[in-house]
Specification:
- It is a single chain.
- This protein has 5 helices and 18 strands.
- By secondary structure, it is mainly beta.
- Among the domains are: 62 residues, no CATH class; 189 residues, Porin.
- The strands form 2 sheets. Strands 3-4-5-6-7-8-9-10-11-12-13-14-15-16-17-18 form a 16-stranded antiparallel β-sheet. It has a two-stranded antiparallel ribbon with strand order 1-2.
- The longest helix is centred in the first third of the chain and has 33 residues.
- About 20% of the residues have low confidence.
């Protein structure tokens, strides 16, 4: 009886164990069959899917066709086309640094082209305290003068100023005060009337001289009137000691042909009187080619302040100059000139020259010039580099 009970208990335990084993095998089969629906007991780490950051379109990127796929789906990222040459242009710096994302990248401050398209912020350091600060609308320190823009149409200068007559290679360097003011026209047009006044002494200091040298006391007043965009008139008067000179000049725009300028002046010194006549024309033969001519005639007895301070005589004479200019694109501007000057004794000056200026990079400008003077048997050859100091 006892053995019978043992056999029954053994059968029940065996059946239970078999039933448990069958359920476990069924669960394993389900795990194998479901596969993707059930993960392993120790899942492997899965990297998150990378998504591309869509940047704002680059200026003129659609027109230039320089947008390329970045590899992040269908998003596009601009790939700047940096030329393999160091001949950076002003537009290269602007285009490569215009967007905020470009300025946020790590760009070398020694780059020749990237920083040239933007103004650098003024930072005062012990090395830059002596340098003039950028113009902020108030007083500004120059090389030999202080300037102040009192408002949009008034300018005041104290120190050495150079009064230049455009196109004639004629200038008067004056040490003193200078005031220039324009009278606004109706509406948003440019001022039609403006005048300038300068009082002081003629500055005869040499460029590299350590001492100052001054000539006679003088004053100059000029009044400009823009009758129309094509016609401009200017009258001026200057005086020094017993010399008084006054003149009238005008400029007329010929449209696509160029410009024409002419004028006359009269001087009086004691019992001497004289006249000066000038004419100038420059023609635009093409978008990149222009020619120019200038002529001057002085009668006996004429003097202006510049010639008076230099001790020139009262003898008359004439002067003529021919010039040509060609814009060679990235290689800058080529210009040549030929000038002659005569008086009653014969040729005083006969000079011809050739010049070229081009931007090697936005931070480096190179100038080359060569001149030859046949009367004085002299020549001049130079190579000039212009770089910003800060």
């Amino acid at each position: 009886m006892t053995w019978k009970r043992i056999e029954i208990v053994s059968c029940v335990l065996g059946a239970g164990m078999a039933l448990l084993a069958g359920c476990a095998s069924v669960d394993s089969a389900r795990v194998v069959q479901q596969g993707d629906k059930a993960g392993p007991l120790l899942p492997e780490p899965v990297e998150p899917a990378s998504t591309g950051l869509k940047l704002p379109p680059w200026p003129n990127s659609e027109a230039s066709g320089q947008a390329a796929h970045s590899g992040f789906g269908h998003h596009e990222r601009f790939v700047p086309d940096i030329p393999a040459s160091y001949f950076w242009s002003h537009e290269d710096g602007l285009r490569l640094r215009a967007a905020d994302e470009a300025r946020g990248q790590a760009i070398s401050r020694n780059s020749a082209g990237l920083l040239g398209g933007f103004e650098r912020a003024w930072v005062e350091t012990p090395e830059t305290r002596w340098q003039p600060r950028p113009d902020s609308g108030g007083w500004q320190a120059g090389a030999a003068q202080w300037q102040a823009h009192l408002n949009g149409s008034t300018e005041f200068a104290l120190g050495s100023s150079e009064l230049v007559t455009p196109g004639w290679n004629d200038s008067l360097k004056l040490g003193g005060i200078r005031l220039r003011q324009g009278f606004p026209a109706p509406g948003d047009q440019a001022p039609q009337w403006n005048y300038s006044m300068a009082l002081g002494v003629v500055d005869q200091s040499a460029a590299n001289a350590s001492d100052l040298a001054f000539g006679p006391a003088t004053g100059r007043v000029a009044l400009n009137y823009d009758y129309s965009p094509a016609l401009k008139l200017v009258t001026h008067a200057e005086a020094a000691d017993d010399l008084v000179t006054s003149g009238l000049a005008g400029q007329y725009d010929l449209g696509g042909w160029g410009r024409w300028r002419s004028g006359f002046a009269h001087s009086s010194q004691g019992g001497n009187h004289g006249w000066r006549y000038r004419a100038m024309a420059d023609f635009d033969l093409a978008n990149d080619l222009s020619l120019g001519w200038a002529g001057e005639r002085r009668t006996d007895g004429f003097l202006d302040v510049n010639r008076y301070a230099a001790g020139s005589g009262l003898a008359g004479g004439d002067r003529q100059r021919w010039s040509a200019s060609w814009n060679a694109g990235r290689w800058g501007t080529w210009s040549g000139s030929f000038e002659t000057a005569h008086n009653e004794l014969g040729a005083q000056r006969r000079r011809f020259g050739l010049r070229q200026q081009f931007w090697y990079s936005p931070n480096l400008r190179i100038g080359i010039h060569a001149e030859r003077e046949t009367v004085a048997d002299d020549y001049d050859i130079g190579l000039r580099f212009s770089v910003p100091l800060y």
